[in-house]
């Protein structure tokens, strides 16, 4: 009997990343019956993020196939330095700490299935070095838009090949629009992603990520041509220009748009989901606005009160996902409030009892698919 090939997937532990990678694992699993999938799971401590860990556990528990397995890497031992900056810095340190554990895992699997490749999350490129040591090809799963991928690679080229400090873009006169290959139209400097123009974040993490993308055998991206025609064409033209030039440049890896990948797994208890669904079932078609700022989105108290006043005065029906900001740790993710009455204006919950509902985490795909939803106020995350 022919031995199956094994593909190893390594997601970043943050919710928006791990959910997409688990859906990618299911996609590979369904479309190739000669492939086994192993997902290496690294978890954030509960005091940092109380959402992603239970979510992964529920997905793993629901898997019944011996061709799709989940391996939990050893828990990390964070130092105070991990929490000294941002949650992104904490995740970066966590990923780096898993190198030796992944190496040990690969050694333990030497007599098993043939390893066909690594697929690492866009924020896990430091782990590609481990795959290189074992002569295993690495691919990157990019969970953001092709426009952002192109911008990262362009900024990395400016930094490494042109010795240009890209953080200076943020100081550009606001009246001057900036043009970039992967952006269809010029943009003002203030809309550039913070992680690319904040010098510490760019040079401390994202510059290395972008360098890793260039070393990959291919980049799998959660997008599709009909949505990002210009961005994907710009990527292909970049490679065409390199192949025609006389410069000693390595072409970019091939890109594979496979989106949209949507998180269809459960993220709340059945009773919590049922409560939200029952409320939506009572609302007229296309009458409710969903307000949700993603797994990392939260508002300070003064903005919560202003948002509440605006919703109260608008007269609109709404479902508001309201998350609690981190309380004591720079690296913490938003959590859940125990009581909304303490932070919202006096009488607000009574006044909006019929037309509005305030909740914590929401099953976003299910909510957006409900016929009662007619609008979406979002942080513009790719999910």
Automatic annotation (TrEMBL):
Transmembrane segments: none
GO molecular function terms attached to this record: UDP-glucosyltransferase activity
InterPro entries linked: UDP-glycosyltransf_plant, UDP_glucos_trans
Keywords, sorted A to Z: Transferase
Superkingdom classification of source: Eukaryota
CDD domains: GT1_Gtf-like
Record's signal peptide: none
Alphabetized Pfam families for the sequence: UDPGT
Family: Belongs to the UDP-glycosyltransferase family.
Listed name of the protein: Udp-glucose flavonoid 3-o-glucosyltransferase 3
The organism of origin for this protein: Nicotiana attenuata
Gene expressing this chain: GT3_0
């Amino acid at each position: 009997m022919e031995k199956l090939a094994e593909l190893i997937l390594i997601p970043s532990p943050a919710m928006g990343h791990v959910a997409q990678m688990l859906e990618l694992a299911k996609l590979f699993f369904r479309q190739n019956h000669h492939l086994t999938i192993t997902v290496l799971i690294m978890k954030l401590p509960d005091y940092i993020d109380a959402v992603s860990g239970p979510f992964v556990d529920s997905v793993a528990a629901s898997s019944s196939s011996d061709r799709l397995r989940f391996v939990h890497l050893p828990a990390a031992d964070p130092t105070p330095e991990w929490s000294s900056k941002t949650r992104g810095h904490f995740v970066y340190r966590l990923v780096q700490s898993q190198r030796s554990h992944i190496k040990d895992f690969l050694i333990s699997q030497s007599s098993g299935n043939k390893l066909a490749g690594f697929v690492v999350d866009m924020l896990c490129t430091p782990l590609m070095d481990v795959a290189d040591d074992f002569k295993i090809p690495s691919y990157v799963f990019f969970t953001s838009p092709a426009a952002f991928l192109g911008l990262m690679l362009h900024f990395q080229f400016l930094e490494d090949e042109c010795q240009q400090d890209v953080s200076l873009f943020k100081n550009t006169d606001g009246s001057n629009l900036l043009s970039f290959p992967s952006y269809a139209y010029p943009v003002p400097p203030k809309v550039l992603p913070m992680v690319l123009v904040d010098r510490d974040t760019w040079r401390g993490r994202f510059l290395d990520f972008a360098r890793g993308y260039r070393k990959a055998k291919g980049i799998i991206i959660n997008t599709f041509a009909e949505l990002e025609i210009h961005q994907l064409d710009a990527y292909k033209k970049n490679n065409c220009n390199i192949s025609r030039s006389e410069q000693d440049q390595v072409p970019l890896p091939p890109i594979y748009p496979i989106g949209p990948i949507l998180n269809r797994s459960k993220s709340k208890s059945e009773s919590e989901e049922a409560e939200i669904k029952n409320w939506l079932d009572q609302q007229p078609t296309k009458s409710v606005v969903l307000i949700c700022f993603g797994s990392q989105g939260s508002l300070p108290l003064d903005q919560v009160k202003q948002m509440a006043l605006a919703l109260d005065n608008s007269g609109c029906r709404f479902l508001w996902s309201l998350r609690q900001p981190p309380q004591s740790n720079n690296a913490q993710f938003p959590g859940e409030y125990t009581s909304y009455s303490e932070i919202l204006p006096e009488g607000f919950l009574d006044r909006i009892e019929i037309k509005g509902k305030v909740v914590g985490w929401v099953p976003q795909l299910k909510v957006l698919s409900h016929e009662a939803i007619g609008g979406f106020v979002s942080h513009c995350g790719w999910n």
